[in-house]
User: Fold this.
Amino acid sequence: MNPQDLSLVRSIAHDPNVVLRELVSPNIDLNPEWIQTTSVRRFVSLAVELTLKGSSVSWLALVNAPMEEDDREQVKQAWIEGRDTETDWRPIVKELKTAAVKSLADNAIRGYYGRVKQEPVRIRDHLGVLGLELAHIANDGMEYDPRPSAHLVSNHPHIESKWGSTVLDNMFDGGRPNHGFIVFTAPSGAGKSTMAKTLAAHGIAYPPHPRVVIMANEMVASYYATGILQALKRIWQGGRAEADLIRDMDTQLSIYDRVTTFEKFRQILYWERPQVAILDSINAVATPAFAERYSENERHRAKADMTLQTVNEFGCLLYAPGNMSEAEQRKLRDKPLSVNSVMLFNSVSYQNSSDYSFVSWRDASNLNKQNIKRVKNRWGSGLGEVWTMDYDPVGGCYFSN
Amino acid sequence: MKFDLKYPYASVGHQVCDILRVDIGGPCWNCGEHTKWAEINFQGYLCSEECVKAKTEEYIEAMRK
Assistant:
């Protein structure tokens, strides 16, 4: 055992963080409260033992050990009560996994690309080991998208294609944007979910056929599946058989209902990588009931902020309808189908974060007419414009001539 | 420990467990200090482990009642 190894073993008695920084990543920093628990010390001892015996691959094997379903409440409860449980190391494994896999993978790949031209025969002999590490990374679902189109993505906002509807094209200044956060404010029952179905149907029907994901929390999946099929039938006007339309939907569309937490919303975007995402509705992404004590405006601001980060991170076009205000929803019981100043005031946070913001309402005289007013767009032009779309009761969607 | 100190190099969009580094930020739900860290489950800004712990305790207490 060399002196460096000895010093590592000694330091574990004092601070596992030091060992982890030496062995895994210089940026790692574990929660001091976790370090006090014996299970963490046992975990780190095992890791050190493996490292002294072998290579970094042992580390990967350890941190990639399959975890059981994360029983978060149990862990939190144990943490608060100061109990030492067998499950305590799970959050640490999560942190370690990210840090270790990233740093090892980066080093291995950088080393490979750096040396393959200088010592082609020698370095290719080591491909087996590199392959093993890459397999671990792939099994863990690293943030890597194999589709070529994912590597052509530009963050520069631009219009990617036409929606196939005059009004929709005008609403977004020419067509479907490549990414952005669309806020669509309307009273309950004014047609926010109908607009979601309309956007999804147009995305599916018109080239380049983006991947669409609907994340719903108020309606069930069959509501969207049935509605979008009817809307597609209307768009195609009998030009395409129903079986083909269903196949189109299966290829391009995923529908998740009961998306009631922000974590689940992020996970779905992570795995699906859609070009068009629909979160219906943003208000129903649940907040723990006790959080009502938090200032309503601050909570809306945090939610809008997190949504914006998520949209930028995954580079998709997110349509997020909602009343944008709990107080407003209560008032709407007395005065349905109205857009008033309270709703607009409470949606300020969403409007600040959004790329496009619309307010929508229906005329009491003709409930089949949907009015859409633009409050914000990327270029700051044409604000206040109002468009009208017709409701198709059979198709369950909007259309424009 | 403050998340700003714990993760000084975290970029916008960085997620550690349930904590997300955001861009605009706001006052911490617990202590009121301005922060750019948000807790995903609570959908509120929380600046440090202590503040998350305080709110988690409150949450568990509220659930018990």
